Amino acid sequence: MTKMKVANRLNEIKPSGIRAMFARAQGIPGVISLGIGQPNIPTPNGLIQALVKAVEGGDNYYSPTRGTTKYREAIAEQNKRWYNLDYNPETDILATASGCEAIFSSLMAYIGPGDEVLIPDPSFLTYPRQVILAGGKPVWLKPTDDLKIDTSNLDQYITEKTKAIILNFPSNPTGELMTESELKPIIDLAIDNNLVILSDEVYERCIFTDQTHIRVPKIKGAYERTVLLNSFSKTYCVPGWRIGYIAGPKELVDPIAKMHSFVVANAPSAQQSALGDFINAPEGDEFTNYLRNTLKERMEKIVSGFNSIDGFTCRTPEGSFYAFPKVTEHKDFTNSKDICELIFEKQKVALVPGSEFGPSGEGYIRASFGSISLEQIDEMINRLNQL
Ligand SMILES: Cc1ncc(COP(=O)(O)O)c(C=O)c1O
User: Fold this and answer.
1) Same topology for domains 8-43+284-385 and 60-281, yes or no?
2) pLDDT tens digits for 1-42?
3) Looking at the predicted structure, is the pLDDT value of residue 144 above 80?
């Protein structure tokens, strides 16, 4: 067959190591998979029923580009209820076909050739790749020893090309949160240099400490320059539904809506209807409490399990559903990728090398406890002890 030349932009990005591990682990008997970041907790019944009702009721056609009024009003109501944060459903909210699309349409709207985007190191591997696809350049923000953003010398990252900063707390892959006072210097940096803040808060309901989630647009001075990126994949265990949203002041959202209209045209209609019915109903909040408690139990088990292995040191994640142990002291360590390969080959445990998430992820491995039972955690730790 004739070999077709693909666009250069694709040669500039590496395939996702998470998806690669997910594909490899599929269909191999006995594999324990801690690769992909999705919760296996059953989708709440009320939400499923709402989707069935929507499909049977005829919500199978295009919706308006920005989403249905019902969906956008429900999102405004939830932001008001949870954070006392005001968004106008008419102008400030855009329904997206997933969190990934929310990030992509935002970057495509704001980032042009050569523009620089500040990204926490390590972070969700889609960010640098999408920045490159938009023609921009990812610039890594060095972490502190506990893998938060080191805010001691932020000015070093700024050039005349710096256009935006991505934030993601609770973080994938580190599980770290940042407090309002820790975030303040970053917001000030954005204000002083006129940066757009893209705040990805998809793990807002997966927090294991007493700290309540910090909505970045609530921090003084942040609202007018922050695009809130969100998704219901994790919050209500519907990653296959591909549904999320963007919220921000109209002036920030309008260009993203224009891009979105040519990428996906609209978010899935029936899903908008179901979530519109569900997210402010009592069952919705009951579910997210149950989700957090279930994940917390797994988190405690996996962290103490990792810390019992010679050469592994694991911090307690404050949120998300990832453990991110440091493995540099392990007898088989040469680099993150090789040790993941070895673990997969010898013990059929699928993990993701920390280096997939940025240069500072080297020396770590990421274990998703979203889709694993307590028994599987015991079994996985047993296997790793036999390496
Ligand atoms: C930090 C972060 N943002 C966004 C997403 C994308 O979520 P989705 O596209 O399923 O809405 C993920 C998925 O793993 C994530 O970890």
Assistant:
1) no
2) 788 999 999 999 988 777 777 777 787 889 999 988 899 999
3) yes
Q: Tens digit of pLDDT for each residue in 44-83?
A: 999 999 999 999 999 999 999 999 999 999 999 999 999 9
Residue 85 DSSP SS3: coil
CATH fold for domain 60-281: Aspartate Aminotransferase; domain 2 (3.40.640)
pLDDT over 90 at 105, yes or no = yes
Using CA of residue 198, residue 204, residue 207, residue 213, what is the dihedral sign? Answer: positive
Distance (Å) from CA 91 to ligand 1 centroid: 24
Distance 6 CA to ligand 1 centre (A): 26
Q: Please list, in sequence order, all residues whose beta carbon lies within 8 angstroms of the beta carbon of residue 257, skipping any fewer than 6 positions away.
A: 65, 66, 94
pLDDT number for residue 367: 98
> From atom 8 of ligand 1, which residue's Cα is the shortest distance away?
99
Q: In angstroms, rounded to a whole number, what is the distance separating the alpha carbons of residues 218 and 130?
A: 26
Ligand 1 pocket mutation, candidates 38, 229, 233, criterion most atoms within 8 A of CB: 233
Tell me the average pLDDT across 208-213: 94
Ligand 1 environment, Cβ below 6 A:
37, 98-100, 124, 168, 172, 200, 202, 231, 233, 239, 244
- Domain ranges (residues) in the chain: 8-43+284-385, 60-281
Q: Is the CB of residue 207 less than 8 Å from the CB of residue 318?
A: yes
| pLDDT score of 137 more than 90 | yes
Which pLDDT tens digit goes with each residue over 221-264?
999 999 999 999 999 999 999 999 999 999 999 999 999 999 99
Output the CA 331–ligand 1 centroid distance in Å: 33
Ligand 1: distance of its center to the CA of 1 in Å?
A: 36
C-alpha 125 to ligand 1 mean position (Å):
10
pTM tops 0.85: yes
Measure Cα distances from 154 to 119, 151, 196, 198, 271 in Å. Answer: 12, 6, 16, 17, 40
Residue having the nearest C-alpha atom to atom 16 of ligand 1: 172
Of 3.90.79.10, 3.90.1150.10, 3.40.630.30, 3.90.1640.10, the CATH number of 8-43+284-385 is 3.90.1150.10
Cα(100) to ligand 1 centroid in Å equals: 6
Strand partners, 247: 93, 228
